[in-house]
Specification:
The protein is an alpha+beta fold. Helix content is about 40%, strand content about 15%. It is built from 8 helices and 5 strands; from the N terminus they run H-H-H-H-H-E-H-E-E-E-H-E-H. Strands 1-2-3-4-5 form a 5-stranded antiparallel β-sheet.
Amino acid sequence: MVDWTEEKLAALSDQQVKNLRENAERKGVADLLEKCAAELSRRNALKPRKEGKPRSELKEFEHQMSEQLATVGKDVAGRYDLSEATAKAKSEGVKGFKSHRLLDSKGYAKLGGMQRDGSVAIERYISYRRGNDTVYLGVFLPKEAGVEDHEFHVIAPSSMLDGGKPVAQIRPSATEKQKQPADSGLVFKDLPSAAAAFDKALAKITA
């Protein structure tokens, strides 16, 4: 019978050690089974761990914007009643009403339809609906544009936005299906200003 020392086991390939371990297990040779397990464990510990693929600049920007929009969402949710139950109660009689979750299931900004179908590079947003009205805050980046060209869009009924422009004007590439269900919008280059306009719209829709 071969005396399987650590040196002899180290000279075998991974598959050979695994085969030897299986034979030891089948024959009930506990000592050899333990040696094989220890050798395989040692080899696994020495193998370099695969690092996750780093995010591209675009994906990293999208992730950051999604987090920042979610922070805005959590802030307003603490100051206004944006629950689905209240939205449904206040929308009684509105045919086909479907309440909007402010954030996605993981607590980030939602993925917009224009990004989902590949029409734009990034569309991440938060929104609230009550009755026939919707207020929306999102980051928008056209295809092939650099991240520095991103915009923040606030979309809501014209009665809730000061100086709002037609949605078709701020999103000329959007089809009728892709446009948010509101008649006016504002464009901002910075999130705090956009968040302030979104806050004002929320105050009106929840009044």
